[in-house]
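To illustrate the input format used throughout this study, we show a single complete record. The first block contains the structure-token representation of the backbone; no residue identities are included at this stage. The design step must infer an amino acid for every position from geometry alone.
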């Protein structure tokens, strides 16, 4: 089959299914578009503007299945894929790379236009695309833990495939942006831009009550917008792992004391209190059946990772969130590490060869896919948080969309090494800012202010984030801020507190770390290398 453009919004050429017994090729479907192997049935339903995929299974556990569309792929195309969760400084337009998975969606550029192909948010599988000269494959990983999902007659709506063709008058960046807006039907968007101070890179896990109050007072004073006050976000290191309760998150440690009083004090200083939380980290005093024993290596001494499919664990997480928000008064919850705690891998280590997780381990409930387990966790936290904002960190963007207000879209920046900030921050913003207010509000991570990074470089990063329309958070060493830094922060906060046009990278087609940007009608240029 020969086509001028890639199209996957049609019936596949064939399917492959993987069970514990092996891989099976399915070449034929019936008139209702059911593809069958034994007690496994996959249905591909064509709509006016989509292709819906359903999986029904009997006793046979299903690990994954692949849809294949045969067609000649034009040789002049360049490709841009997404990441499983946050990105890692490696996003760029590339030539065809058949063995590289492109999670969730991919864009193509033919020299004139950008087209988009992907699955909508909220899929019940981990989905990735691969393109080779003879066709397109979509792999849908439906494992539960490291084993096949046990559907036992359940009809699972796995994913909805969509495509987007550019409209007349759109710029290339608008091609990509408009495709992404079609991926999520119900994003959860903050009513105002989020900005402020986060002690992550100034405290490095060893913050104190006094340091938080100093940060809150100083940065609240720099924020001039009375209608949208800045956040003061307490990052990791406040929790009391020796609290004597089943949860690490019911009291502050000796450096923080009463967390409700701290939240109230932050408010009196003119900031909005926020707090970091790792939902699945607990200690070994919990009942054994609550524990994911396969994740014993991911904790410190005496700690464990909880199984989110256990009802009592779900109840504990719900109570944690209600304590942090309704009782203590924190208005922003940054919850972290759920992907690695459950699947055992960072997104950068989820390869087409090794999959999204290791083999053999199980949840307490093996009837739900890994994607479903994560979505259920995100939904639980969302419902428990009430009006407080949620920031997902190490959450899977395509699964948490609609359940978090903000999403950390890239790996950590730094207050110690400028090259890390340039690689992780600038690259992330360039290639994922298109998701801003389409899937959630995006956060490309902090401006880490310290003597170890030249101010000339950090000032550029600060200026870019302030102009970007996305979230702006700053980590600043207590003794670092002088007159020129405070003046720059005041100007950045003033701009970031109000809605801005979404930034557009101009040279992103040819540079993984763009230097030229367009913010509304303003053109900006940065030199990320010459100190």
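Output of the design step:
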């Amino acid at each position: 089959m020969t086509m001028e453009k890639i199209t996957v919004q049609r019936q596949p050429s064939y399917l492959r299914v993987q069970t514990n017994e092996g891989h099976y090729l399915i070449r034929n479907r019936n008139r209702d578009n059911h593809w069958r192997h034994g007690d496994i049935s996959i249905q591909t339903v064509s709509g006016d503007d989509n292709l819906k995929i359903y999986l029904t299974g009997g006793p046979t556990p299903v690990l994954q299945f692949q849809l294949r569309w045969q067609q000649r792929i034009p040789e002049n195309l360049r490709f841009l894929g997404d990441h499983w969760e946050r990105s890692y400084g490696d996003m760029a337009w590339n030539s065809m790379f058949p063995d590289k998975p492109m999670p969730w969606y991919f864009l193509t550029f033919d020299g004139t236009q950008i087209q988009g192909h992907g699955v909508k948010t909220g899929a019940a599988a981990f989905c990735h695309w691969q393109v080779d000269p003879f066709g397109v494959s979509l792999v849908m990983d439906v494992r539960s833990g490291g084993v096949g999902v046990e559907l036992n007659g359940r009809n699972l709506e796995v994913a909805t495939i969509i495509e987007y063709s550019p409209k007349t008058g759109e710029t290339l960046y608008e091609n990509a942006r408009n495709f992404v807006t079609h991926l999520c039907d119900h994003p959860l968007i903050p009513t105002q831009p989020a900005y402020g101070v986060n002690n992550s890179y100034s405290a490095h896990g060893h913050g104190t009550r006094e340091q938080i109050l100093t940060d809150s007072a100083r940065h609240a004073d720099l924020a001039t917008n009375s209608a949208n006050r800045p956040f003061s976000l307490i990052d990791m290191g406040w929790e009391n792992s020796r609290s004597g309760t089943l949860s690490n998150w019911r009291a502050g440690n000796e450096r923080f004391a009463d967390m409700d009083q701290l939240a109230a004090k932050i408010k009196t200083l003119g900031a909005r209190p926020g707090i970091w939380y790792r939902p699945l980290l607990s200690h070994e005093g919990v009942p054994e059946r609550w524990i994911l024993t396969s994740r014993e290596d991911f904790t410190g001494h005496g700690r464990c990772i909880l199984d989110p499919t256990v009802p009592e664990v779900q109840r504990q997480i719900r109570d944690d969130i209600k304590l942090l928000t309704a009782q203590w008064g924190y208005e922003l919850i940054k919850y972290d590490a759920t992907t690695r705690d459950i699947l055992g891998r960072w997104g950068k280590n989820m390869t087409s060869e090794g999959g999204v997780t290791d083999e053999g381990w199980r949840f307490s409930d093996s009837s739900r896919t890994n994607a479903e387990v994560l979505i259920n966790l995100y939904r639980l936290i969302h419902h428990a948080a009430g009006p407080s904002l949620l920031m997902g960190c190490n959450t899977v963007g395509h699964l948490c969309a609609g359940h978090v207000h903000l999403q950390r879209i890239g790996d950590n920046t730094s207050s110690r090494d400028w090259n890390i900030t340039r690689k992780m921050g600038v690259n992330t913003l360039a290639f994922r800012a298109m998701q801003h207010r389409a899937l959630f509000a995006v956060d490309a991570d902090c401006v880490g202010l310290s003597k170890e990074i030249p101010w000339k470089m950090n000032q550029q990063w600060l200026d870019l984030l302030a102009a970007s329309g996305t979230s702006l958070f700053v980590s600043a060493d207590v003794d670092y801020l002088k007159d020129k830094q405070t003046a720059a922060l005041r100007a950045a906060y003033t701009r970031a507190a109000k809605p801005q046009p979404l930034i557009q990278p101009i040279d992103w087609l040819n540079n993984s770390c763009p230097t030229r940007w367009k913010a509304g009608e303003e053109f900006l240029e940065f030199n990320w290398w010459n100190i």
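Structural context for interpreting the output: The chain has a mean pLDDT of 95. The radius of gyration is 23 Å.
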